[in-house]
Each structure stands twice: as C-alpha cells, then as structure tokens.
C-alpha cells in the first residue's frame, strides 16, 4: 500500500474541446481521508476534470496521479469508484442483479446484501431498474460505487433527483465512510452541500482553481462587510489601520475595504475624507461564490 | 427509506486483487441469460415466430419428398432453424448498441472489467440464445412428425448453431456502429431479406436467375447450404465454404475494429 502518496494529484491539467477550454491548467492535491467539495457554476470544468481524474478522458496536457499511480490502475484494483451524472444503468435488470453483476467485475467486494442495505435499496432489490425512481437509481449508482470498498470515491452532483430525506441519509452514509478513512471528492453547485459536508472546498471557475481552503477559510473570504467608495488618492495605510479592517484594495479612484464591522470605516470615510458614493454590503457564502466564480479580475 | 451507516473498517481490508478472467464469469452469464428470457420481443422473434413459420409453411408440405427421399418438412425445419439462430445471435450481439446508448458501457469503464471479457460474455450469451433457437425449432419439427437419422439431426443442428456465430459478429459490428436502443427494429427487416436471399424461406431456384447468382454471395447462403448438407447429401463446395469464411472474417474484423476504436476512446 502507498498510504503516504496523495489520494489525488492533478498537475497542470488542461483540456480543450475545439475552441472551448474546459480545463485550463488545474492543479490539485488531495490527501488520503480528506472530504473535498469541488464547487463551481455549471460549465466550470468540474465534470471534465472528473472524467480525466477517472481516466475516462485524456488530458491535452498535465498529469493525473491517484495514489501515486495512473487512474486506470486505481480503477482496476477497485481503489477508486465514482457516482457519475451520466453513468447508465440497464433498465431490464433488477436492482439486486445490477449489484450482483457488477460485483463479478471486481476482484473483491463487500457482500451484496450489505451494499444494498447501506444504499437503502433492500426494499426495492427485486424491482426492475427501469421501474425505479430517479432517486432510487441514483442510490443504485451509489451502491455500485460502494462495492469494492474504495479508498477514493468521486461523486459528480450525487444527490440529483433525491428527496430531502434521501439527501440527508446519503450524506450521513458518506460521512461515516469518510470517518473510517475514505477519501471523498464531490462536485456540486449547491453551496449548502459543500458547506455542510466538506472539510475543504475547492472553488473552480473557467477550468481553474480560484480558491482552495478549509470550509471556514472559504467562509471567511465571504465573512464581514464590504465597504466601497469613490476616493481619489485614498490613504491605504490609514484605512488599513482602522479597527476591524481585513483588507484594503485601491482600484483607480475607487477603494474597497473588507472588514468585520463597517461602522468605523464608514464613519472615517465620511467624516475624515472626501469619499463619496459610500456603499456597504454584507457578504455571505453565496456572494463569495459569485465573486470568486464570476468576477473577471479574481486571481487564484 | 433508511441508509444504515455501518461503515467498513479500513484497517482490516483484505488485499486488493484483479478479477479472475478479466471479469468474465458464469454468474454474469446467468444474469445475462435471465435477462434475455425476460425480453418478450427477443423470445417472440427468435423462438416463437420461426416455430409458427414452420407450422404455417412447413406442415402443409407434409408427404412431399426431396430428390433423395427425405421429407421436405425437414428441409424447411432446418432452414428456419438457421433463420431463428441468426436472428437470436444478431439481436444478442446488437444488444451492445443498447448498452452503449444507455451509458452502461461507460459505467463499466469504472470497473476492472476488461473489454474483451465484456465482448466474450456477449458472444457466449448470443450463442446460448442461438442454441435455444435451434433446439426449439427442431423440437417443434420433431413433434410435428419430422423423422431423420440421428446423424442428420446432430450435424444439421450443429451447423445451424455454429454458423450463427457469423451473425453474432454482425450484431456486434452493428452494435458498435450505432449506439441506439432500438437497433433491432432496423436490423430485423434486413435479416429477413438476407434470409430470403440465403434460401431460407424458399429454394433459390424459384428466384429469377440474376437474383440467384447474386444470392450466392450474400451472408446467409453459405450457412444455409452447410446446415442442409447433411439432409440433402449434396456436400458443401468451395463456394459455400468461401462464403462462410469470407463473411465471418469480414464481420469479425469490422466488429473488432469498431470495438478497438470504442475502447481506445479514453
């Protein structure tokens, strides 16, 4: 076993489809046992990155290593499995047959009955897949991913089609496995899901990582208030010295102050300077997400 | 619905290993065959329809004899067995098209299953259905009074069955060509035309002369002649053997070419 190797190591990953650059020099390192949310708007390159990570697509440039080896090796040894958005199922097999059949394709698996129970499918084991609801089919994909007891599980928008209760149970199960040492990487565009279930959030935009940190750090990017004003020749140092100020940014005639509390900054700007058009906004995770994933000037 | 959260213990995991035979296994074959038996349309076209054809078009010929004194009903029965087997193996092979259209083959790429084991499973499944088709057709024939020496039953049955391997290759070829769920809707009529040209529905002598000449080069002709040879005692010439070998090679090569293209697409 190579437990000291990173579970996932992506370096300079790049993929274009004709004129569209889906993934644009993406670097990412995930240690064994981490639970990471891959968060970004639709079209950010999440699914393309996951395809390359699993060896389903070949990168134009860059490398993918899973546990120090190539993705094909990890798949063949059942070290990595995935719940994909597009992964198909055979409609004319029953739920249990699908799991039993897939179990034969792996070298060693958890017992079929256990996997069915863990995915909450025991009650519908003999139902034809074609007669299952979207949520049940999604849980079947999850059951198939559980079979080889993988070290790394990749989930692409895993709770699509599940009801609220199903979603909660699903994440409970994922969390239990993560505590037992499984690395989990899930792509989502639901902020609350990333916030609630990941220890680390990787924000992607236009095929690049624009922010990467613990959930708390990413939230801090968003915490507090943002004071914006027009103030030619602003004294950056004086503003930075005010209580509660986290960062000061001067853009042309404009000044942007990120702070815990906005009162002192606003009072200073309005009484001690010639600032005008003072604007105070509070930021939440949603705003941080939007700012980081849509603004043109955002750096990594 | 409930999901239990009894997580596996990472510490005492057994060592990981590759699946035996690349994932090819009797258990999977059993599920595949059960799946076929569940498919009413497939059973209708491969087991029931050819049997009904025999009762409709074969039985009225009762009492008629071939030049060598054997019953004409046997000629019709063997021809229809070849037809039943070819429909069976083509549709089982073409199931690949459905599985590609549904995205199942993509799902399989996330398992250790080797592509060759997948195709082997499809071929064996196709041949099991082909065998069932021959056995049912012969069973209906025997029940309806066809009497032949054991040697003829065996050799004709074996030829009809093994000859249908050509069409398993054709099915795979089409399956890898067109990822569509309803590919047999288009293939079915094509098979009927090929069977007609191959002399399975009527003797080729009743066709116009030019068509007869063309028919000798179509893919069903060789297998049909081979399967009926034990009955008619006419033997099998180079033309028939060449036909069988040629079409097997062509369909097999085309299927393997597309199969390789499909699996190379990473």
The helix content of chain B is 55-70%
The count of helical stretches of chain B stands at: 11
Main sheet makeup of chain B: none
Mean pLDDT of chain B, nearest integer? 88
Which ranges of chain B are low-confidence, i.e. pLDDT below 50, for 5 or more consecutive residues?
4-12
The tally of strands of chain B reads 0
Helix content of chain A: 25-40%
Strand content of chain A: 25-35%
**Structure class of chain B:** mainly alpha
Radius of gyration of chain B: 21 Å
Shape of chain A: elongated
How many separate helices of chain A? 11
Write the H/E string of chain B, N to C.
Answer: HHHHHHHHHHH
- What is the strand arrangement across the widest sheet of chain A? 5-6-7-3-8-9
Radius of gyration of chain A: 23 Å
Q: How many strand segments of chain A? A: 13
Distance from first to last alpha carbon of chain A: 34 Å
Describe the structure.
The complex is a heterodimer of chains A (300) and B (266). Chain A is 33% helix and 29% strand. Chain A contains eleven helices and 13 strands. In chain A, strand 1 and strand 2 form a beta hairpin. The longest helix of chain A has 16 residues. Chain B is built from eleven helices and no strands. The two termini of chain B are 37 Å apart.
List the helices and strands and how they pair.
The complex is a heterodimer of chains A (300) and B (266).
Chain A: E1 8-17, E2 20-30, E3 35-39, H1 46-53, E4 61-66, H2 71-76, E5 80-83, H3 95-104, H4 112-118, H5 134-146, E6 152-156, H6 164-179, E7 183-188, H7 191-197, E8 200-205, E9 208-214, H8 215-222, E10 225-230, H9 236-240, E11 245-251, E12 254-259, H10 263-272, E13 276-282, H11 285-294
Parallel strand pairs in A: 3-7, 3-8, 5-6, 6-7
Antiparallel strand pairs in A: 1-2, 1-4, 8-9, 10-12, 10-13, 11-12
Helix pairs in contact in A: 8-11
Chain B: H1 26-38, H2 40-58, H3 72-101, H4 104-108, H5 115-143, H6 150-163, H7 165-177, H8 183-197, H9 209-215, H10 221-232, H11 238-264
Helix pairs in contact in B: 1-5, 2-3, 2-5, 3-5, 3-6, 3-7, 3-8, 3-10, 5-6, 5-7, 6-10, 7-11, 10-11
